[in-house]
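Preliminary data (for renewal application), L-homoserine complex.
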Amino acid sequence: MQQIRLGIAGLGTVACGVLEIIAQRQSLIAARGGVELVVTRVASRTPKPEIDLLGASFSTDLDSLLADDVDMVIELIGGEEAALDLINAAVRADKLVVTANKAVIAKHGNELQDLRNTIGFEAAVAGAIPIISSIERGLIANRFEHVMGIINGTCNYILTAMKEEGASFADALVRAQELGYAEADPTFDVEGIDAAHKLAILLALAFDQPFNFAQLHIEGIAQVTADDIRYADELGYRIKHLGIARQVDEGIEARVHPTLVPNSQLLAHVDGVMNAVLVKCDAAGDTLYSGPGAGGSATASAVLSDVVSLAQRKGSNMRIASAGAEVSSVPILPMAQVRSGNYLRIPTKDEPGVFARVAQALSQHGISIEAAIQKEPKAGQTTVAIVMLTQMSSEADIEAAMDEVRELPQVAGEIVRIRVEGFD
Ligand code: HSE
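Predicted structure:
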């Protein structure tokens, strides 16, 4: 049986998950995959003597993993620069590489040498969900229409808590931090950057593109309020933070933002820290994948799937996928040309004619109103919220209409606009 000697970089929760699973399942994996996994080296800047390294030698020097007794480097140190250096050094030293590092792949995938023959990154997107192998192998015979989903568990936890408990964004974030779902510095998650890294990877794989992280439109969830979640609920929608890659006639939409999802969609009911990815393609139709997007053993499960498949392909030059290599010429669509429905919440003075003026501004830009809510003002209240759902329009048209609405003397605060996905 082929033996694969592993060098693990990092000793965080995912690395510990990998060590634990190998300890428990080495013979099962060998029986199923035909490869015997042996951990020969572990390197981490912070030693953790309490962790069972399965007989591997330990060093605080990451370069120790480039030694001859390592066939495959598993990069689990996180961060960007040091991880990229290690991956490059490992590829140059003829090692296979497995990484969970979405930032490195999304931002540097185009420069990484021989990416899809030597580097596995299943664990970089949606944790345990085998979405990369589904796109690359399970759906290889398809043309993709869209790949979209909930790909940041922290945002999903926060939006779920806001919906279920009426909590504010700030309170839900603090809770997510207390429970260990959100980092002490939650910027990457709540501003949509983590989801954008993952979307850039999915987009490249599904649409045979380079890794286009810099061209993605990225919005986070900090502006979503409990009021918007309540209004959306009244209109039959949930607010989810989605990554969306969609092929339309003019190009590929690539965007990450809060989105109203109809209650009738399964995606609307994927709650808490769970992730879900909806894939629409021509032969297979619609497929939906859901599961934990983070966590030690869940992510380790994806890491080990890469370890085994890379080991099985070792020595073969078989093409795995065309992302970053054979690249399609379909352009990423500028955001102004993207089309979607819109949820609008417009705070206005409680005066006659406001609703009509807003409707007029929309109609002048060819935008039709699909639904609207306006509540009676409560006693003593001088402003009211006009809440509307519009039919599909281009970003350019809805932005131009909103510029006009903002100028109305009756508008009494920031207008909230959240895109709506109809899933047609
Ligand atoms: N921080 C990510 C999330 C998990 O909240 O989904 C790792 O990508």
